[in-house]
Amino acid sequence: MEEKYNQLEDENASDTSEKSKTGLVTPEKKASIEVKKESESTVPAPVPSVSKTEVKEEDDQDSDHEDPHVKELLNGLEGAAFQSRLPFDKLTSTEAACFPDIATGPLQTQKVFLHIRNRLLQIWLENPKQQLIIENVLPQIESPYNSDTVLARRIHAFLERHGFVNFGVFKRLKPLPTKKLGKVIVIGAGIAGLAAAQQMQQFGLEVTVLEARDRVGGRIATFRKSNYIADLGAMVVTGLGGNPVTTLSKQINMELHKIRQKCPLYESDGQTKYILLLYIIKFDIVIINIVSIEMVPKDKDEMVEREFNRLLEATSYLSHQLDFNYINSAGSGGQGSNARPVSLGQALEWVIRLQEQGVKQRQVAHLRSVLSLQGRLITNQHRMISIMDRLMELNKQYKEMTESKLQTRDITQEFVLRSKLRDLHNACKEWDQLSDQQKEIEAKLQELEASPPSDVYLSSKDRQILDWHFANLEFANATSLSNLSLKHWDQDDDFEFTGSHLTVEAILGEYLVRQNLWMYLEDALFASNEIPADHVVGIFGMRRRRFFVVRRQLDIVYVTTHRVFVEFVEFILFLRISMKIVLL
């Protein structure tokens, strides 16, 4: 095999392949503790499900479906590897485990493997609407990489098995296996459950999906009222770089729009006006509260946002530098038998309290500085009073000696006179120094009194803005901050997708569940007519000895609450003997 590919060394060194792209630079990753408010917060309001109306010119640049950065990434072999979340120039640990002969082989063999792998990914991403089969791919692999067809088939099988190719909604060129390899029950018809069910169906498994609600989609939920529709759950695509949703959007013609970076915040001015509306038809009086609002000043908005990021930096320091991730019943840190993990919400509140304590400490330090300067000023003034008394006394003595009627003075009297004059000069010089010190102390004192520290860490309005950032963070993580682990809440930051955040032009639920993905699943997943409608097909055990009875109705299997106190062993036996009883 080495002999076949000796000629590749020069080609790889010069890198003249038109398919590959050199110098690919991905955007610099944001710090894990920084949370931007543009993507999760500026979700568009519900829009009518009718034809599009005119769009403002200022929104044109935000409505481009194609992200130039993503288009650049999708070009070339390196872009295909990046979009598939794989390193371009080395094997992953999974690949090394599945291809030990390649991982332990010579470097040139690994280069061949990587080229074939990246080329297959590139061909798939160029046309994800059609199944990628090895027979169609081999002619598209450049010589001499296509000489080892066995290796190409192995790589294709690996990529297909691990979901790097042939995933989502695409046209199959080969029929599904008629012989089922096994039976699988997928619990939950959310997007993950549906995607997993479809993928296992592609692998030749018989799949049944269980869903507790009367709809599919899970967190992808759509609200409908009259001609208006709105997503209530997942609705934001957090970047297309390395995101499999990029492929899915091409498969189902999903139109995406950038979310504007600008996100002004508004606050109430505290004035509420009451308006009485009389509905004559219903003879009912409704009181509507109209609260006047105003935009938060930009400087205050930016100040609170910087403080929010500083708080996250502080919690990150507590977790990763001080390893303060657990707290025991006594309130001290440390991981013991009674220790419980610290939540992000707890850590943020602790840091806020420390900041408030710091404000009080700064107030105390400020007052101490003022008192110290005032003490120095009093001492200085006392010295100035003492020098003034001394100056007056010396001046009196000097005048008396100079006004003496004696026309002649002996040498002793002349010495005393000149000594008094010297003392007067020294006292005046000391007075001037103390006077300058007094001015300096008064200037410092005025400066301190003119710029006292804040009485509070955050005002009530500032805390409202900060709470908005907290709520935005909860929205981004789909749970409250008290449920987020301080140590692990941002563990996925290293795997964030690149590019702008986008939202679906229509409704995500309509795209992913109702219109496209589900129609590909319903026939295959629920084609079996062995289970009559409204008949129990199993009992699924839950915690606290509460169980759910599973029943089938129409084209979907539902799970309804049914308090049956049985052991889990009975559930296993129940499935094995395939009992069917009517649900009362």
Short description:
The protein is an alpha+beta fold and 584 residues long. The protein is 45% helix and 14% strand. The protein is elongated and about 140 Å long.
Describe the structure.
The protein has 18 helices and 15 strands. It is α+β, with helices and mostly antiparallel strands. The chain has three domains: 67-166, Arc Repressor Mutant, subunit A; 173-259 and 500-583, 3-Layer(bba) Sandwich (FAD/NAD(P)-binding domain); 297-324 and 340-490, ATP synthase, gamma subunit, helix hairpin domain (Helix Hairpins), CATH 1.10.287. Helix 4 (76-83) packs across helix 7 (107-126) and helix 12 crosses helix 13. The chain is elongated, with a radius of gyration of 39 Å. It starts with 7 loop residues before the first helix and ends in a 7-residue tail after the last helix.
Give the strand line-up of the largest sheet. Answer: 2-3-15-14-13
What's the total helix number?
A: 18
Give me the count of strands: 15
The total tally of domains equals 3
At the third CATH level, what is the topology name of the largest domain? Helix Hairpins
What does the main sheet amount to? Answer: 5 strands, mixed
Percentage of residues assigned to helices = 40-55%
SSE class? alpha+beta
The CATH superfamily title of the largest domain: ATP synthase, gamma subunit, helix hairpin domain
Cofactor: FAD
Subcellular location: Chromosome; Nucleus
GO cellular component, one term: chromosome
Biased composition (Acidic residues): 56-65
Could you give the topology of this structure?
Blueprint: H1 8-14, H2 38-41, E1 47-48, H3 68-73, H4 76-83, H5 93-98, H6 100-103, H7 107-126, H8 134-137, H9 149-161, E2 183-187, H10 191-202, E3 206-211, E4 222-225, E5 228-231, E6 236-238, H11 244-251, E7 256-258, E8 266-279, E9 284-295, H12 298-321, E10 326-327, E11 340-341, H13 344-402, H14 411-450, H15 460-477, E12 501-504, H16 508-515, H17 517-525, E13 536-541, E14 547-553, E15 556-561, H18 568-577
Parallel strand pairs: 2-3, 3-15
Antiparallel strand pairs: 1-5, 4-5, 6-12, 7-12, 8-9, 10-11, 13-14, 14-15
Family: Belongs to the flavin monoamine oxidase family.
Organism: Cyphomyrmex costatus
Subcellular location: Chromosome; Nucleus
